Amino acid sequence: MKHTLLIKDWLGSFLSLFFPHCCIVCGRPLAKGEECLCTMCNINLPRTDYHLRKDNPVEKQFWGKIPLERATSFFFYRKGSDFRRILHQLKYGGQKGIGAIMGRYMAAELLESGFFEGVDVILPVPLHKKKQQIRGYNQSEWIARGIAAVTGISIDTESVVRQKNTETQTRKSSFERWENVEGIFELHHAQSLTGKHVLIVDDVLTTGATTVECASCLAEIEGIRISILTLAMAE
Which long-range contacts (CB under 8 A, 24 or more apart) does 85-88 make? Predict the structure, then answer.
């Protein structure tokens, strides 16, 4: 067994000379033990730290729209920033593993603040089945997997279904975003979430239209409590 591990370690080191894993942000080869981000880019990641602030800007974005327990986003998504590559490669580059890695990073930092306290289930915002077939995966689900790996909280991918295949939100105005997502989700197995505290997980928060529509679908469940966590928040 020990001999096999040594061979695998040697083979990994040998291959890394020719096919090095690189930082998704700056492109530098990653050192042993680094995943996705090099240490410097991890340090410089524009974190919001909103999980440390009550009534933070993310929570305020949902006030009066859904019954909210708490909400935060991990880092700022700024136009022109090199850190935008994290989301771009996750959503369009086929690198689903980035979601799990960033989910672990995020959960590990939020864990000590008590953000996950009392949460019963993680619900990643679903993609329409056609879009998921084209992409090959749901990026929000992979972020949720990383969170679950750290927190031990189970993931629910069946209770909410995306029944309408909408156009991308990227180039839409705020009003068009809200109009585009109206009625796109359908609730299944509502009884399994009765009295539960659900954490909705998504990749990036912009207007919050998609997240609100997903949460509104859950709001009719008796005793439901809802919190929201996104990997990034657009500025």
Answer: 85/24, 85/25, 86/24, 86/25, 86/36, 86/37, 86/231, 86/232, 87/203, 87/204, 87/231, 87/232
